[in-house]
Write a structure and sequence with these properties.
Residues 1-23 form the signal peptide. By secondary structure, the protein is α/β, with parallel strands linked by helices. Helices cover 12% and strands 29% of the residues. The N and C termini lie far apart (61 Å).
Length: 171
């Protein structure tokens, strides 16, 4: 009886250690073992990731790599080394639906159990990355993009960000 218990514990440890903190959205499996968040990137995909639309800069524990769509000047911005940098020209936020509901909790943390960062969705990992939704020529294929939409353009092989008016591309 003791041997069965020890074998069961050993098998459970092996099984649990083979799992990774990974999430796939719109599909069954994540591409690669070094991915914390992955999206369904089938051919013809026109759905991207929508950045949070904020009125000014968020407060709290800001960390490098924080992305927002700032509706005060209609620009997509990234927080880097204690400053906000624009990733787009001034766009248009008229399509943004303002969320006035009260926030509760600290948001969702993926990849680790805790995080010092404040955000709706925080990806924390020392060895995993996020794979953006992949869209071929989003400026042609996405018919009604939402301000703050972000994706990877598989045609130009660039990061594509919609500012409410035009797509901005980054290599």
């Amino acid at each position: 009886m003791k041997n069965i218990r020890n074998i069961s514990i050993a098998v459970a440890l092996i099984v649990f250690n083979s799992f990774y903190a990974q999430v796939a959205i719109g599909k069954q499996t994540v591409d690669g073992k070094n991915t914390v968040l992955d999206f369904d990137n089938v051919s013809g995909n026109t759905k991207g990731l929508i950045l949070p639309a904020t009125s000014g800069f968020p407060t709290g524990n800001l960390v490098n790599g924080t992305l927002i769509f700032d509706i005060t000047d209609n620009k997509v911005k990234v927080y880097e080394n204690d400053t906000w940098k624009s990733l787009s020209d001034a766009g248009n936020s008229s399509a943004v639906i303002v969320n006035n509901s009260a926030e509760s909790g600290k948001g969702v943390i993926m990849g680790e159990g805790v995080s010092a960062a404040d955000g709706v969705l925080v990806l924390e990992s020392q060895d995993k990355a996020m794979i953006l939704p992949k869209i071929a020529t989003p400026h042609l294929s996405v018919k009604n993009p939402y301000p703050g939409m972000i994706c990877y353009d598989t045609t130009s092989k660039t990061l594509a960000i919609f500012d409410g008016s035009v797509w901005n591309y980054w290599k």
